Structure prediction request, 135 residues.
Amino acid sequence: MYDNILVPVSFEPDRNAQEAIDIAQGLAEGGADITLLHVIEQIPPYAAAYLPRDHFDQAHRRIAEALATLADGVPGARVEVISGHAGRSIVDWATEHRVDCIVIASHRPGMADLLIGSTAAQVVRHAPCAVHVLR
Prediction:
């Protein structure tokens, strides 16, 4: 069905990354590219000043290793770790890399989501392609 699938991965306990990957594989054409993407949220400079100098490098490395573990055994899979605002960064990455489907895990929406919105809701509203949301 799809040739270039993006799976944004959040390591929050209520997200099911493995299920999203399984669905992406089911939606993939033979030889499709599947990218597991994690967005490291930016920390305000006043807070970042209190973190160890190598905090971001270590976080990037640990996240890339965790994504690589998830990608093991997934044909055509690659991993990407970027930083920025999660919703905007996912949409921007999908646009730049001509993604034709995003498979994203979400949580059950609550009152806070009605006021500020969730990452999945932002991706659904602004994505340049099909979006498959898991709950």
Notes: DSSP finds six helices and five strands in the chain. Residues 55-71 form the longest helix (17 residues). The chain has one domain: 2-134. Residues 2-134 form a domain with the Rossmann fold fold (CATH 3.40.50.620).
